[in-house]
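Section 5.1 Outputs to date
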Amino acid sequence: MLIIAEIYGYVCVSTREQNEDMQLIALNEIQVPKKNIFIDKQSGKDFERPQYKKLLKKLRRDDLLYIKSIDRLGRNYNEIQEQWRILTKEKGIDIVVLDMPLLDTRRGKDLMGTFLSDIVLQVLSFVAENERMNIRQRQAEGIAAAKAKGVRFGRIPKPLPENFHAVY
């Protein structure tokens, strides 16, 4: 019995406010079926993402997974490396990173091709995690600057009921 491989796409944006349209346009251009596109709207700091987990369960040997760029897969160096290994070695799927033609596991299945893919993956994984750290640092600096200017964060505290301490 011949099993026909499926084509999948994975899209990830860090927050609900961010727009995933550019990633979806890229996947539509290469004709990834809409039913096979999985979208997460949360941080790529780890792989505890519901749609990614659902995708992982669906993937079968010889399937093909498209992602727009490696930082859409994740932002943690070690975890990107581990997930790449799980996807390509354990599950036996191919991955194509659209923004980086060297990260196309359909090509170069020989030792040299694998070596080049591994080097590119390591460099891009480092860059993705480094960008995440830079974002966090800029965010912390922005918050500190705002606090120095007197900006208050969070809700305005409500007064406690008069009997609070007695009840507590």
